[in-house]
Amino acid sequence: MKEWYDAIKEAQSVEKLEDIRISVFGKKGVLADAFAGMKNAPDNEKSQIAKELNTHKNELMNEFTAKKIILQTLELQEAMKAEAIDVSLYGTSSEAGALHPVMQTMDRIVEYFSSMNFAVKTGTMVEDDFNNFEALNLPKYHPARDMQDTFYFKDEMLLRTHTSPVQIRTMMQTKPPIRMIAPGAVFRRDYDITHTPMFHQVEGLVVDEEGKVSFANLKYILEDFLKYMFGEVEVRFRPSFFPFTEPSAEVDISCVFCKGKGCRVCSQTGWLEVLGCGIVDPNVFKAVKYKNVSGYAFGLGVERFAMLIHQIGDLRSLFEGDIKLLEQFQ
Ligand code: PHE
Questions:
Q1: How far apart are CA 162 and CA 201, in angstroms?
Q2: Rounded average pLDDT over 252-266
Q3: What is the Cβ-side half-sphere exposure of residue 313, based on CA atoms within 13 angstroms?
Q4: CATH superfamily of 101-329
Q5: DSSP assignment of 58-119, as one string?
Q6: Domain with CATH 3.30.930.10 in the chain
Q7: How many angstroms does the Cα of residue 252 sit away from the middle of ligand 1?
Q8: For 18-31, what is each residue's pLDDT tens digit?
Q9: Which end of the chain is more exposed for a tag (fewer CB within 10 A), N or C?
Q10: Are 168 and 135 in contact (CB under 8 A)?
């Protein structure tokens, strides 16, 4: 009988234990056999043998029952572990999104001008001819309109070609003084390595009593701003033309790639053009019926800033929605 005690002790599963139960307690099991064999034993030993067999039967049954409880508990625990669902876990497939490099750059620009007390204004992307051109001293059929061909709707409505119409909207709605920027999307009929039909600009406008706003103020704030964006760069103002400013200037920074030595990106000039600016033309103030005021304005392309900050070669790649490319700028 000893081997059956060992067998029960060593059984590793409920299934194995069941096999043992049949072999020991079954109709043709060892105990049944042993009881049946008693008939051949001498009469005076029969009661002793029966007593021993019954003891074994009880003890084996106790061992069996105890072991069965242990094995069942273990197996239940294993099953629960395998089927466990942790409802507090996040799905593994979702990843956090991040800001597009153009929006990151825009935020940084807005951050600077907000710290300088500029209010943030927004206009509309579908504009009328008056706000986008006429009031900005760009009369109908003026050749300067050619540089800003856009997408037209009926009734002289169009997709704005720059953020400058927000200057007009703001001046029509509020009295001076004004100190504002206008970030937003603009549209032009352009498509090449440095132009996309939709891009972003940030406009700036400061207006106050006549004589209070000068080119010196404009120069100071733009130099400070460009150093905030690009670090220690040289800043240069070049005379230029915009219909809505007089005098006008284009602003260059020393090339961030070659530090001004001359390379492919700056066409060997050592300078990169980054924005346009000037003193607000009197005709613009006339259009919005402002009198005895002076002001300055500027406008910049956000994609161009992002390209220079992140050293991106082809502007169009910013709008292809390629996660692998965009992830590099997080
Ligand atoms: N609106 C001009 C452009 O899109 C930029 C500009 C804004 C220039 C304000 C001067 C003053 O090119």
A1: 7
A2: 91
A3: 2
A4: Bira Bifunctional Protein; Domain 2 (3.30.930.10)
A5: HHHHHHHHHHHHHHHHHHHHHHHHHH---TTSPPSS-------HHHHHHHHHHHHHHHTTPE
A6: 101-329
A7: 14
A8: 999 999 999 998 98
A9: C
A10: yes
DSSP state of 201: E
Compute the average pLDDT of residues 266-279: 94
How open is the CA angle 188-311-260, to the nearest 5 degrees?
100
Taking CA atoms only, the protein residue closest to ligand 1 atom 9 is 298
Q: Which amino acid residue places its CA nearest to atom 2 of ligand 1?
A: 299
For 6, the 3-state DSSP assignment is helix
Among 42-56, 192-206, 276-290, 310-324, the range scoring the smallest mean pLDDT is: 310-324
For residue 130 the two structure tokens come to: 């008056």
What's the average model confidence in pLDDT over 233-247?
97
Q: Which residue has the higher pLDDT, 155 or 126?
A: 126
Strands (E), 174-325: 178-187, 198-209, 235-242, 245-254, 271-280, 293-301
If you measure from the C-alpha of residue 276 to the centroid of ligand 1, how many angstroms do you get, rounded to a whole number?
Answer: 5
